[in-house]
Structure formats: structure tokens, C-alpha cells
Amino acid sequence: MTPSPTSPSALLEFLRTSYPSAVSSSACETDISALSHQIFPSNSYTDNEKIETSQWLTTSSRLATPDEDEAKHAERLGSLNIHLSTRTTLLGSKPSVADVALYYRLAPAVKSWSAEERTGEHGYHHIVRFFDFVQNAPLFGLSIKDEDKVDIDLNDVKFVHKPLDAKEEKERKKKEKAAAAAAAAGGQSVLPIGKGKGEDNSKSSKKEQARDAAAKAEDKVKSALTGENTQQPKKEKKEKQPKAQKLPPKEIPLSPCLIDLRVGHILKAENHPNADSLYVSTIACGDASGTDNTSEYEGQVVRTVCSGLNGLIPLEEMQGRKIIAVCNLKPVTMRGIKSAAMVLAASPRLKEGGEDSHKGPVELVTPPADSKAGDRVIFEGWAGEPEGVLNPKKKVWEMLQPGFTTTTGLEVGFDMDVVPQLQGEEGGQKPIGKLVTASGGTCTVKSLGNAVVR
């Protein structure tokens, strides 16, 4: 194998060796992310899968970087191991060029792992299983000599995680449910498992009924002889209390605080494969792991965001920069790719009767330099908690967005005077509220004063 796994040219040469009919001699390093279909022609790939393949190519390159911080490297390996715990390949079950790249680039490191690192209690079991699959499966058909493969002893397993027995788990949940139902019934006896009403229970029930009948007859005889009423008085029925009516949900007053505005960090931006006017950005917004409409990239929880900035802002200016993102709009699919947020940008205010030619200029809203991904930003004078997801039918964003503006001092703010729905609010007119972080830093634009922000 080529001794420089981090080099794209070395990876390209390895791909040519394994797939000479799919990777032409004229192919260059920038073509690698698009080679999946040529290498695996029986598979088709969605736009999201193409983007994920490109992201995994970047991650595999960084995993193979020798001078990466040790803690960060361990974090990346841990995330990869968890990702592969429920997947056969990086995309799930579908092979891609990213699988081959990850194998090629990380193989030298895996070869040097100890048995404990491979299959110990805290080892990378799933990465090792993935490597064994990729280097031996006919599906991939890699051109590797046996002596160059990662030597994996399938019998040398240091720690075996106890598998979950699906049948036992189902039975356990069934019993818990039955016990809970019995408790909710006020302590009523539960029939023994395997005993029906027509078996021993019915027999004992008949005996009890006979004893009750005899006891009642005896009471009647005593009552006739003594004149006393031996029967217990009947319990009076309690009147049912009327159910309390549910109060209607509290109406939340209209305010820009309902919009979840956060600092975002663009980790990667590229052209949309199906739309010339769109960029597709991978943005960290401070979300917790497992949040809806997020994924993981380079060990961080990220959102995929489509923005109509292609041709208005150079692609290189999008890379690695911090922005302000609207994080609680309902996700929308834009030309085949789901977008889970919106990037705020400023553009000149149209003159009365004018039409927007969408030719710019456009400037991204820039958060304070000391802010970090996930920091919430609010407009001064409009504190409050944001909605989880804005209801599109209520048009909250559409009503409030006209108040988003920039000042002559190039600060981003909110002007309630141009939002008709806020006219007549208690407290009268308010000054333009600056868009600030918790520490008081103000969000700004480069040069567009008195501009529209959206």
C-alpha cells in the first residue's frame, strides 16, 4: 500500500489500482467524491448521500493526520465507532468511495492498535469489524495483498458486550405492562398465568358463592327471630364531581424573542448539486446530540443549511466563518436537500415601487468575535424564550422580519415601528433594539447601513 494515506493523490492511485475500469487515468483529486457511482454502478446515490460521502472523505483525511490533538483524535474515533455500531457501511448499507477512503487512510493506525484498543471494553469494536468487512468483502473487491491487510483475529475478543435478547425484552415489557394495569385497577386480583375462568378459579368461585348464600339465609332467620336487621347498611353512592374544563392555551404575545437566533459556525460550504443559486453549508449551531434534523460532522452536531447566496457571496468567504442562523423555522427541502436553518444576511432596502433584482450587494450578519457556536442572540428590549418550532400557519417570521434592519452605524437591530402587528403595544414606541449576545456584544454588517436583514 502507498505509505502516505493522508495524500489525496495517494488515495486516487489506490482507487485506480483497485478499480481501473471505474477510475480513469485523467481523474483528478477533486473528482474523488463523485466516484461512488462509477465504482459501484448498481447503486444510486441521493443528494444527501453525496453530501454525506463528501463529509466522510474530509473526516477520514483528518483521522489520518498524524499531528492531530490526541483528545480530538480520540473523540473522532469514538464518534465513528458509535456511528458504525448500527451500520454496515458509512452510509448504512450502501457502499461508497468514502468507505474505501476510510479503510485506506486509517489502516496503518488500526494495524498498530493493541488487542485492548481493538476489542477491549472501551475499544473500537465496530471500526475493527468494519475494516474486516471492507478488506475481505467481494462487494468492495479491493486490490490488496494478504500481507498488506489489517491482521484481525476474530477469536481474540477481550470483552464481549452482552447482546439484548429481543424475545426476553419483549416478555419483560409485557409483564411490566400487565403489572401496571393491575395496580391501576385498584389492587384487583390477577388471574394466574395459564388459568382461565373455566378452570380452578370458576370452581372456587362457586364455593364462595354458596357460602355467601348460606350466610345471607342465616342472617334472615336471625332477623326474623330477634327483629334486628343484621345486614350491613348499603353504602351511599358519592356524587360524581364535574370534570374541570381545560383552559384554552395561553396566547403568547408577538415578539421577536419567539425567533430562535443563534451564532452558527460554518464548518463547510459547497455548491448545491441541483441549483446554481444555492450553497449547501454544514453549520454547528450548538445543538445537543440527537436533536431533530441534525447530524454529526467532525465530532460536532451540525445542521445542513441551503442558502441562496451563490453568486452574491464568494464561496471562499463562506468557509469557516461565524454567522447568525434562524434555528426554529420548519425545515424545508430545497431541490432535493433538506435545509434545517436560515442564514441571516443584509441587502439594500428597495425604493418604493422598486423590484428586487436579486443581484446584490449582500452581506452576512457577523456576530461578535468572542462568540461561539450555539450562543443565543436577542434584540435589546425584547427578552424572552423562543418557540420550539415556529408554526408556519401563524406567520410569525413573516410578520416580524420587516422589523429586522441595520442602522447607520452598521449594527443589526429590530424596528417595531415598521411591524403593523406591534403598533399600539403597551409602552408605546421603542428605540431600535440592537441584536446582541448575552455578554453584550453587538452583531454587525460590513458596509450596508439602513438595510433589510433576512
Describe the structure.
This protein has 454 residues and is an alpha+beta fold. The protein contains 11 helices and 15 strands. The protein is flat. The two termini are 51 Å apart. Mean pLDDT is 83; it is low at 187-203.
In short:
By secondary structure, this protein is an alpha+beta fold. Helices cover 30% and strands 14% of the residues.
Low-pLDDT parts are 187-203
**Count, helices:** 11
Rg is 34 Å
> In total, how many beta strands?
15
Strand content: 5-15%
Overall average pLDDT:
83
Distance between the termini: 51 Å
Element-level helix/strand string: HHHHHHHHHEEEEHEEEEEEEHEEEE
Strand order of the largest sheet: 3-4-2-1-5-8
Looking at this protein, list some descriptive labels.
454 residues; four-stranded antiparallel β-sheet; 11 helices; alpha+beta
Give the arrangement of secondary structure elements.
Blueprint: H1 8-18, H2 36-39, H3 47-63, H4 70-84, H5 97-112, H6 115-119, H7 125-136, H8 166-184, H9 200-226, E1 261-271, E2 279-284, E3 295-297, E4 300-307, H10 315-318, E5 322-326, E6 332-334, E7 337-339, E8 342-343, E9 345-348, E10 363-364, E11 378-379, H11 396-400, E12 404-406, E13 412-414, E14 433-436, E15 451-453
Antiparallel strand pairs: 1-2, 1-5, 2-4, 3-4, 5-8, 6-7, 9-10, 9-15, 11-14, 12-13, 13-14
Helix pairs in contact: 3-5, 4-7, 5-7
